[in-house]
Amino acid sequence: MRARDLVIGFPTVTLDTPALEAARLLADRDLPGLIVVDERDQPFTILPGTQVLRLAVPRYCQDDPALARVVDEAHADLFLRGLGDRTVRECLPEQPRELPIAEGRATVLEMAALMARTRSPLLAVVDNDVLVGAVTLHVLLDHALVS
Amino acid sequence: MRARDLVIGFPTVTLDTPALEAARLLADRDLPGLIVVDERDQPFTILPGTQVLRLAVPRYCQDDPALARVVDEAHADLFLRGLGDRTVRECLPEQPRELPIAEGRATVLEMAALMARTRSPLLAVVDNDVLVGAVTLHVLLDHALVS
Q1: Which domain holds residue B102?
Q2: The model's pTM
């Protein structure tokens, strides 16, 4: 079994998608992350869900748990407003050394090794330079557990 | 809203749970990770799904994508057998500086900051030293998006 056999359709966002829209997409569809594509519809990177939160949390609360504690409950509930009109571009962490992007011919083992190395439960799959979808940790495990 | 209001029941494993059983639990219930408890049922750490894969992938394939590629497709499909009778204890990555464990009184903002810092889409929630369940990224976003 190869990546192209296990691939599922998966929503993409661009660098200019509003971060709040990305948060809605993650929540509505219970996704582990989003595929970020460039202007040629090629996968640029994977945006992990937790990194959308990072942008919404004021910087002074990110590093010091004690400071997050002093914000009262009512205001804390509204923290996603901190996203304002910022975009996916601003959510992205530093570009990692290796991206969770697999070729269509990648085997189950290659995909497992790539997920483990990049710690990403989501791989974008590219076949002949075209983004064809994603393979998630759950799809990979479902397949591997019946093999 | 506080952690204790958003908490959901969540399966736990111990350090001695077989890694293959952990993989089944992740797959069957579509979980982003598992709460690992110690012998006193206290949360010890969070096991991210991708780290179960790490243990199943032969070490020589983990670091070098070219070596994963030479394993033929039929054998690659069976990579989970590499887990053998190993346990969750052996899956755990180096203990991180900060664990994704929140107190019941943590606000939504505190939980968001903790998920962003630890990059964990899953927090174990402890109230009066008792594990009461978990808050996931999706539960947190669902709440924050309607506030």
Answers
A1: 3-146
A2: 0.85
